[in-house]
Amino acid sequence: MRRSRNQKQGSIKAQPTAWRPATHPLGKGDKCSTMTADLVYSSKQSRMTGPRISSTNDIPERERTTANKRADREQDKNLRVCGCHFLNGKENSPCHFEWSKTTPSHPTQPTKQSLDHTYCTVGGQDTAVDPNGGAMEEPEDVVHQESCPVNRKDEGAIYSPARLSDEVIRMETGLPDKAMFSRVVGLVQRLEGSIVYAAGWRVEGMTMESQVFMALMKVRQNCTHLHLTQLFSCSTATVANVVNTFIHLLHRLLFNTMMAAVPSCQKNRESMPASFLPSASNCRIVIDCTDIEVAAPKEMDKAKMVYSAYRWMHSFKVLIGVTPNGVITYCSSLFPGSVSDTAITMQSGLLEHLEAGDMVLADKGFLISDIVPDGVSVNIPPFLNNGKFTESEVRATREMARNRIHVERANARIKDFRILQMIPSHLRSSANVLVQLCCALVNLQNPLIKEISSTLSVN
């Protein structure tokens, strides 16, 4: 076996030992913040990654420093040296830190890199190691990055709505301001003692305000459960329990209670926009259907049923009805995407709310004149018969489009809730509740029509 260039003549031969930094687990381009020190034992010169060592005096400075640091440890492949010790680059020797606030290598305001240099992995465990060997106690002035469970009660880490501005509340929940959010929380707090959680156990580590805020964030932003655990410092089981419980609770409070009936024509006239007068002064409701995309079912017959040939996607359809002032007053259950608008209107139960003298505004797809109750008129745009609309038909179409645009704008607000952008398979059973809850939350937003904003109030 050939001698290394750095080996002295006449020195005692020793088992070839070399130190080398380990490679990055992802391959080339080691950019990690820590440097791994592997002690490689090999009897073949071709596998050596450093000079052959024959005595202690011939150990290079970098190896000697590492060996001194690990003198109290058995040298094996699990030894680690943090990259913080290599201040002059990985090609130079590691250095030791002095436990002092004035030491330049140990800043007063600890960073992530400076926090981790006291921890070196030995046998897969994190242990504080003294640079001179042996275990030691950490200084009080060093604040380490904590690795506590995510369900730790830490009020400082909670994404609390009390600390957020109106703009953030509007972004995260869809509600216009903190005052409206407080009203929703007040409704929930009335039932605080009688709430039965979906998982069967109560959540005690969070305030009622934070739980409502978490559920609204899920509906508005469709945040993942892991994201919510980081914002609210809780476990994924707690997030699932809170979200499932309060989505159904808010649906019962805001939809079942407040949207149970369709306002009468007399009630609508109190806040009727000028565009509906006088031709549509008896308008009771403006209706339209909208599609909500869903994940394609695995069963072929169900996938065919929910596929919408008009939208070219698998979807659910829902019938939305708004009053002339733009408030959503009716939201049907969900129907498969292949069902026609006329069939949905017939089966949804909307016709039971209509009375003689009411007018319904709709588009051309609602051929329901023969199924509505007696005395109810249906106003839809005229069809093209002779290749050209007459002047009166153009005027009627334009006026009707100006009145029907409000239901389109309401549909757009509903779809601003990101949980409705695409309903996955595991939420398909709760799709009805989600859509109807979003309709109720839209009613709590600022009015669609500024003209009648002063006539509307939330009691």
Automatic annotation (TrEMBL):
Keywords: Metal-binding
Domain of life: Eukaryota
Domain DDE Tnp4 positions: 287-443
Domain Transposase Helix-turn-helix: 207-254
Needed cofactors: a divalent metal cation
Molecular function (Gene Ontology), one example: metal ion binding
One of the Pfam families matching this protein, by short name: HTH_Tnp_4
Region (Disordered): 1-73
InterPro entries according to UniProt: HARBI1_dom (IPR027806), Transposase_HTH_dom (IPR027805)
Bias-annotated ranges (Polar residues): 42-58
Basic and acidic residues composition-biased segments: 59-73
Protein name, entry field: DDE Tnp4 domain-containing protein
